[in-house]
Amino acid sequence: MSEMTCEQLRELDAELALGILPARERARAVAHLDQCPGCREHIEQLALVGDDLLGLLPGTEPPVGFESRVTALLQPPAPDPAPAPAPAPAARRWLLRPRLLRPRVAAAAAALAVACGFGGWAAGTAIQASAPPPSPTARANAQLLQAALVTGGREVGRVFAHPGARGWVYMSVDLEKPMPEISCVLDHKDGTMTRLGTFSLQDGYGYWVATTDVNATTLAGARLLTPEGSVLASAHFA
Amino acid sequence: MGLPLGRAPDEALLSGLATGDPEIAVAFVRRFQRTVFGVAIAVVGDAQLAEDIAQQTFERAWRHAQVYDSRRGSVRTWLTAIAHHLAIDAVRARRANPVAPEDLDALLDIVTQTPEQHAVAAETSAGVRAAVATLPREQARALVMAGIYGLTAQQIADMEHVPLGTAKTRIRTAMHKLRRTLGAEESLR
Ligand SMILES: [Zn+2]
Q1: Where does the RNA polymerase sigma factor 70 region 4 type domain lie (chain B) (predicted)?
Q2: Which of A53, A58, A144 is the closest to B128 by Cβ?
Q3: Can you name the CATH fold of B98-189?
Q4: How far is it, in rounded angstroms, from Cα B141 to Cα B132?
């Protein structure tokens, strides 16, 4: 299999970006991309055009019953064991793993610093395991709690909390500077707190989710802390 | 101060999906099912097969939520790409003749409709739509056959009764025109 030159690759660029090259040519083209960042960037740009084209397809209502059939499939295979009074701290886990770092799709994105880079995710250890007991009434109410993450009067992100014994907390934040280690804690109205975990922000921006017990009636807020314990940003649920 | 799940950000719903919470799954499927099924039915043209593909798309998204990369595009774009890949694979496996000429014409009309005809058309898709509409008809056909139906240049050449080189040039010219048009819009923002 002979090497493909940049010029030869560019002749096939549209077909490669649309995924319609026959297997043999495709293999040669991909081998070239592996060692040519310029062509890789070019193909990524064209692939975005392909995505845009698909975006023109009209939405269509699926057959009756589709929603419930699919929803039933999207459940974890193993049923829950008997409900525990409070989830064991060790059971908490971070659900989003570090993302593959790909070449930047667009220079514009880099300039805006919206590209999110994650690294060094670690499961947190609970520093206060006395989370309030799950409230069954909160569960029935399919609402998300939300609050702004604020630092110095400025909004730097948002926190969403989904109530339930198997609830979750989602957060997006833009601190505009890389942070090697941040820890996140939930504050409860009785003064206790739950440590969700630690993470790092490579480009200052990121979002993540953690499963934890969330009680809508006792959850007071959330804080992001440095390793030394100073507050980077805080949120208060009204 | 509660936010209904139906109004949670796309990325929050995708993240929450991994928790196995049935309410999140309902909200997620409800939000994206028209898009996912729309892609599948446009490519395969068969409601039963399209439903299978749409179902597989949601299963894949659920299993692979952690590889979703927001820098590559929105959650909707990601789901669209998954559905499209699955649909193309299904069509390649099943059909000798991958697209009926009347289906192609109908789809061409749909993707080149002016934004006024699309009450809810997003701003970006309006730009793409206009760009596709200004292509010469044979280039727009080649683009739709390649980009939506996933036909190879050889298949397009056979369908259009033109040499392979001509089919390749049509696809390439159309893609580069779109990219220039959209790139120019991007820099104006
Ligand atoms: Zn090259």
Answers
A1: 128-178
A2: A53
A3: Arc Repressor Mutant, subunit A (1.10.10)
A4: 10
Which residue in chain B is spatially nearest to A106 when comparing CA positions?
A: B71
Cα(A38) to centroid(ligand 1), Å? 6
CA distance B85 to chain A (A): 9
The residues that bridge with A201 in the sheet, in sequence order, are: A118, A179
pTM for the predicted model, two decimal places:
0.69
- Contact flag B15-A207 (C-beta cutoff 8 Å): yes
Average pLDDT per run of 10 along chain A, which is 238 residues long? 88 96 94 95 94 93 93 69 38 32 28 23 23 36 76 85 78 80 88 82 71 85 88 89
Please indicate whether, in this complex, the C-beta atoms of A74 and B150 are within 8 angstroms of each other: no
Q: According to DSSP H, which parts of B45-163 are helical?
A: 47-63, 75-94, 101-112, 123-133, 137-147, 153-160
Helix, strand, coil % in chain B, rounded to nearest 5 = 80, 0, 20
Fold of the domain built from segment(s) B1-95: Rna Polymerase Sigma Factor; Chain: A (1.10.1740)
Domain residue extents for chain B: 1-95, 98-189
For residues B47 and B32, what is the distance between their CA atoms, to the nearest angstrom? 17
Per-residue pLDDT tens for B160-185?
A: 999 999 999 999 999 999 999 887 76
Separation of CA A35 and ligand 1 centre (Å): 8
B173 phi, psi to nearest 5 deg: -60, -45
Report the residue count for chain B: 189
Q: Which residue has the tokens 């200004």?
A: B134
